[in-house]
């Protein structure tokens, strides 16, 4: 029993760290698949930029200024925005700039996926750039997106999202570190073929590849994975740069993780038939990058229980001491501060939030609408 508990703890811990350490190491073993870019297909391709907004009064003016700079450089850039029932002046601010963008007004709260579908249906560009209302694009982004789509094998791309405000709290610091690791893993996936899904902050696809889907799924995940399903490459391009502010509040980030995880796993359930038809390499990457990561909180709990059981199996007093140390560690780590202990607690809390979101999805709960984080 003692050996079994120890082995169970080691196995659970291995599954916990696999998506972040072991999987990237394995990716280095696969053959490289370079992307050419350029050519005749990208230089003058019409492009549409789309985003959905809800109560973004704090960031919408900065977004409009960013669009103005993009339009000054690319007068032919079509920009479409969807307002999902804002009540804070977001809609008025966007409608005041008709020279920059066309605004589609929703009928109450319908959610981002609903809005993005309306925008994609109205888009005239052969390439559609998807972004968020609080995300700013580098002025070179449009040119670089055109360039990479010059490769006929490329159906879409993920941009390079750079987070701002990592020094404002431990939550933001850990969030920034997590995203830097995520960016590196996407780089490595792209070097072997395709990335397993894009983040909604900045990605682009050929409009002809836009799929139909229900309003309850994650539109960015669904749309970007359809590129892979259709036999094209979804790549990662570090010269397509966007900027976004990190969430600084622990409670805001926990709620955001729960919502995103619930929608992501619900999307996984919706896409299951197509996922099963992917190539063996892509299925390996998907399970490693997505599926195992969603259950990281479960592996964390199993590892803790196994090692505690191991301590109790060795000695009652050793088990009691291990429980006391665990309680003290959690108590100290839960206090906000820039310490390694606090960062570890933040990572664990993030995994638990993700697991809780997955459980909600398994139980049939979905999240169709969103509310911007107050601490962003």
TrEMBL record:
<keyword id="KW-0472">Membrane</keyword>
<keyword id="KW-0328">Glycosyltransferase</keyword>
<protein>
    <recommendedName>
        <fullName>Glycosyltransferase 2-like domain-containing protein</fullName>
    </recommendedName>
</protein>
<dbReference type="Pfam" id="PF00535">
    <property type="entry name" value="Glycos_transf_2"/>
</dbReference>
<dbReference type="InterPro" id="IPR001173">
    <property type="entry name" value="Glyco_trans_2-like"/>
</dbReference>
<comment type="similarity">
    <text>Belongs to the glycosyltransferase 2 family.</text>
</comment>
<dbReference type="InterPro" id="IPR029044">
    <property type="entry name" value="Nucleotide-diphossugar_trans"/>
</dbReference>
<feature type="transmembrane region" description="Helical">
    <location>
        <begin position="344"/>
        <end position="362"/>
    </location>
</feature>
<feature type="transmembrane region" description="Helical">
    <location>
        <begin position="291"/>
        <end position="310"/>
    </location>
</feature>
<feature type="domain" description="Glycosyltransferase 2-like">
    <location>
        <begin position="50"/>
        <end position="210"/>
    </location>
</feature>
<dbReference type="GO" id="GO:0016757">
    <property type="term" value="F:glycosyltransferase activity"/>
</dbReference>
<keyword id="KW-0808">Transferase</keyword>
<keyword id="KW-0812">Transmembrane</keyword>
<keyword id="KW-1133">Transmembrane helix</keyword>
<feature type="transmembrane region" description="Helical">
    <location>
        <begin position="317"/>
        <end position="338"/>
    </location>
</feature>
């Amino acid at each position: 029993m003692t050996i079994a508990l120890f082995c169970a703890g080691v196995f659970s811990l291995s599954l916990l760290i696999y998506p972040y350490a072991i999987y990237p190491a394995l990716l280095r073993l696969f053959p490289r698949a370079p992307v050419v870019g350029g050519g005749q297909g990208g230089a003058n391709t019409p492009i549409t930029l789309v985003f959905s907004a809800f109560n973004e009064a704090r960031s919408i003016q900065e977004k409009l200024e960013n669009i103005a700079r993009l339009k000054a450089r690319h007068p032919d850039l079509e920009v479409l925005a969807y307002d999902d029932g804002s009540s804070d002046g977001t809609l008025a601010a966007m409608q005041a700039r008709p020279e920059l963008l066309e605004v589609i007004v929703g009928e109450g709260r319908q959610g981002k996926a609903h809005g993005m579908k309306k925008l994609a249906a109205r888009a005239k560009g052969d390439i559609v750039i998807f972004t968020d209302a609080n995300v700013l694009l580098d002025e070179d982004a449009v040119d670089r997106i055109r360039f990479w789509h010059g490769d006929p094998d490329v159906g879409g791309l993920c941009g390079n999202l750079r987070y701002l405000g990592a020094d404002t709290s431990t939550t933001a610091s850990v969030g920034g570190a997590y995203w830097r690791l995520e960016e590196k893993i996407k780089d490595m996936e792209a070097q072997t073929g395709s990335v397993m899904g894009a983040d909604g902050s900045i990605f682009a696809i050929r409009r002809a590849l836009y799929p139909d889907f229900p309003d309850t799924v994650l539109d960015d995940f669904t749309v970007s994975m359809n590129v892979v399903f259709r036999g094209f490459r979804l790549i990662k391009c570090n010269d397509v740069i966007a900027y976004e502010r990190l969430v600084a509040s622990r409670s805001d980030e926990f709620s955001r993780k729960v919502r995103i995880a619930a929608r992501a796993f619900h999307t996984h359930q919706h896409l299951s038939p197509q996922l099963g038809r992917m190539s063996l390499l892509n299925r390996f990457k998907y399970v490693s990058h997505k599926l195992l990561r969603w259950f990281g909180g479960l592996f964390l709990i199993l590892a803790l229980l196994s090692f505690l059981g191991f301590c109790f199996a060795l000695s009652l007093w050793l088990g009691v001491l291990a429980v006391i140390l665990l309680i003290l560690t959690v108590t100290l780590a839960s206090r906000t501060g820039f310490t390694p202990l606090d960062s570890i607690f933040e990572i664990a809390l993030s995994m638990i939030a993700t697991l809780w979101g997955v459980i909600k999805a398994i139980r049939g709960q979905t999240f169709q609408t969103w509310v911007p984080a107050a601490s962003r």
